[in-house]
């Protein structure tokens, strides 16, 4: 055969690739390759040294006797494939947890054979998902989970709780509710904050909870120093676990709020002037620490405090993790059994809580098991409100002022008048110096009150804004009656 009659290498590679792989794009334009019949997808532009689609394609060409090709031919073929894939239908990729057909959800076990768990209100089973239904995306943070045990009769949950040092039954049921929430891709869940005295096993307990979802390779990490590194770490896994926090600066606090309830980040694409890269994220988080200082009100509504106590009997790390690895299949199986029961349970959605989806999940858990998780969740939010108030002198001053009002009283003043009133109340007759961070203008005071509004409302003080023909005003009201769940907490 003459040189002119030979098929160009790029065409040979392209024909082989289209015969053995399915190519599609996501909504952000990234093109993925998925081996026929296999649920795991890899971006074709991945330059990773392990498990990239380029390597996958080279190995397939060699093992099937097609040949060994140089980098130029591979690049030209992949360029053509990418251009062709941009005309295909859009399909999302998922890490660890994904929605499926008919109301089902999937849990990726991280196995090479692609086996996953399909969770449905009628039950759960292990199978390989249809690539048209679920496309898994894996990273170095995607660990392998064991095959969950069948017919555990709930013993796995008991075995897990025996290894953790939770302070009360209420804390235990909140931890279980959070684990169930991690298996639902469409439900934002508050971030557990494992706290307690030194030596209470906060880091160990955090690892145990994370590894139920992420496998034995799942671990805690230090908080990244900037937003870009944080978003990169969040996008590469399902559960983001930060260890030994001692301080929450405002930027990190705001970023955590975005991660829990969902947000989008946009940055300039590398080596371009006008193109951008979009990163959407909403992930479960887990935090550990003895004390993080002042908690901002918006983050407090997204936290789930789990208190631990020091164990009476200490065990070696090797002994502890050996037992944990042995019980993990039973723990995962029991969690899946309980998840099925919870999703099938009927319960009303509480309408007064910020994280309404998680509150509804707690109500379903109570209906399915008789636990008191919703009451425990409300109590935990009250504790967090106390933490916010104890760390904010302005909030304390507002509550002191409201304590002198009769029930049902409404007070309207401009922001400047309120600033003078509250400053005078704080300084008192002793003319105490104002603390660092005290509002200096009416506008700053108004902004601070907006952030404190939910916390103050939980303590029976309602703050609202309005305007007359003359000026804007801030209205403070102490209502005559409170909802039953707030009556004990107020004042």
CATH architecture descriptor of the largest domain: 3-Layer(aba) Sandwich
Shape: globular
Instruction: Give the CATH topology of the largest domain.
Output: Rossmann fold
Termini separation comes to 93 Å
* Beta-strand percentage range: 15-25%
Tell me the count of domains: 3
Sheet having the most strands: 4 strands, mixed
Structural class: alpha/beta
Low-confidence runs: 487-491
Description:
This protein is of the alpha/beta class. It has 3 domains: 8-85, no CATH class; 155-377, Rossmann fold (3-Layer(aba) Sandwich), CATH 3.40.50; 392-487, Aspartate Aminotransferase, domain 1 (Alpha-Beta Complex). It contains 16 helices and 17 strands. The strands form 5 sheets. A 4-stranded mixed beta sheet has the order 1-2-3-8. Strands 4-5-6-7 form a 4-stranded antiparallel beta sheet. The radius of gyration is 27 Å and the shape is globular.
């Amino acid at each position: 055969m003459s040189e002119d009659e030979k098929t160009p290498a790029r065409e040979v590679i392209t024909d082989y690739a289209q015969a053995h792989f399915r190519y599609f794009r996501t909504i952000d334009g990234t093109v993925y390759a998925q081996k026929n019949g296999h649920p795991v997808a890899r971006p074709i532009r991945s330059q990773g040294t392990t498990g990239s689609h380029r390597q996958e394609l080279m190995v397939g060409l060699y093992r099937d006797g097609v040949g060994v090709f140089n980098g130029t031919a591979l690049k030209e073929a992949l360029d053509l494939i990418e251009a062709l894939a941009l005309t295909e239908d859009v399909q999302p990729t998922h890490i660890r947890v994904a929605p499926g057909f008919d109301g089902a959800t999937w849990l990726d076990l991280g196995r090479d054979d692609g086996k996953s768990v399909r969770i449905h209100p009628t039950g759960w089973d292990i199978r390989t998902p249809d690539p048209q239904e679920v496309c898994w995306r894996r990273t170095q943070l995607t660990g392998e989970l064991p095959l969950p045990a069948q017919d555990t009769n709930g013993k796995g949950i008991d075995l897990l709780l025996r290894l953790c040092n939770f302070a009360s039954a209420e804390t235990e049921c909140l931890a279980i509710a959070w684990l169930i929430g991690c298996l639902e891709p469409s439900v934002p869940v508050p971030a557990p904050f494992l706290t307690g005295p030194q030596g209470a096993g906060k880091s160990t307990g955090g690892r145990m909870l994370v590894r139920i979802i992420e496998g034995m390779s799942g671990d805690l990490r230090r908080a990244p120093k900037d937003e870009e590194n944080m978003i990169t770490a969040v996008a590469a896994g399902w559960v983001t676990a930060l260890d030994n926090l001692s301080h929450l600066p405002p930027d990190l606090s705001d970023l955590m709020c975005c991660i829990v309830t969902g947000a989008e980040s946009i940055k300039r694409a590398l080596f371009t002037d006008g193109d951008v890269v979009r990163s959407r994220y909403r992930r479960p988080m887990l935090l550990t620490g003895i004390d993080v200082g002042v908690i901002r009100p918006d983050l407090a509504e997204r936290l789930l405090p789990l208190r631990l106590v020091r164990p009476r009997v200490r065990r070696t790390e090797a002994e502890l993790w050996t037992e944990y690895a042995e019980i993990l299949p039973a723990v995962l199986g029991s969690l899946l059994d309980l998840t099925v029961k919870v999703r099938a349970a009927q319960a009303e959605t509480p309408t007064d809580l910020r994280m309404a989806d998680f509150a509804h999940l707690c109500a379903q858990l109570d209906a399915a098991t008789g636990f008191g998780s919703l009451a425990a969740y409300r109590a935990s939010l009250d504790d967090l409100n106390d933490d916010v108030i104890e760390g904010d002198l302005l909030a304390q001053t507002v509550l002191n002022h409201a304590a002198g009002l009769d029930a049902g009283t409404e007070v309207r003043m401009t922001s400047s008048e309120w600033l003078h009133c509250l400053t005078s109340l704080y300084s008192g007759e002793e003319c105490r110096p104002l603390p660092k961070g005290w509002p200096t203008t009416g506008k700053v005071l108004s902004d601070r009150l907006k952030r404190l509004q939910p916390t103050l409302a939980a303590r029976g003080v309602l703050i609202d804004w309005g305007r007359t023909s003359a000026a804007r005003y801030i209205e403070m009201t102490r209502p005559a009656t409170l909802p039953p769940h707030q009556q004990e907490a107020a004042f």
